[in-house]
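Hi everyone, sorry if this is the wrong subforum. Our group has a chain we'd like a structural model of before ordering constructs, and none of us has done structure prediction before. Sequence below.
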Amino acid sequence: MPVSGLVLIATLAAVTAAQAPTVAPSAQERTIGSWVLACAVDPMTDRGDCVLRHRLWIVPPADGAGGIALEIVLREDKALPAVTARRLSIADTKRAALALGASAELRVGAERMVEAPCGLEGRDAICLPAGEAVDRIAAALPEANRILVRLRTAATVAGGGGEIYALDLDDTRAAIAALREQVARHPPREAPPPARGLMEQLERLLRGG
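Answer:
Right subforum, don't worry. Here is the predicted structure as tokens:
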């Protein structure tokens, strides 16, 4: 076969094998006082996924596993402090302990300590104030200068010594406003309902979602 024919075949093969480019979610991260606001937007739906996390970790990520963080989350239009362990798996035993009958104790500024029961939402363990404490903590959070956190789990987390973590706060009101603005522009996907009971929690961890 002439050389020109071989070149044509090679060119056609290259064209046939070409693949369309992929589009990754747009991601942005910025620091507001003591907080880090990280958002990713799905280019197909314009739905957003925002996390407002304290810049210091309660338990830092290590050995390929994620960390345990203090976040601010929006629940029924209230901004609340939450202890979170995101993207859990059944092999991630230390962090998964937060999803299994655990809780966190929170003290926001000068307010009385409140219990924050933990639950599994999708693959995320989220510990939030509940009951009558919700309104009180939501009102105190924007101006609080510090949050104290203690983890209460049946398994060992971060040494299991009942350590109290102190996280100083700065520009919390501005950080909450920025989170609300992002959520208004790019509403999040509908959150999965909390897991009901131990068996459903384990099932979610096993199937990874």
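For your construct planning: Residues 25-201 form a domain with the Immunoglobulin-like fold (CATH 2.60.40.1880). Residues 109 and 144 are 5 Å apart (CA to CA).
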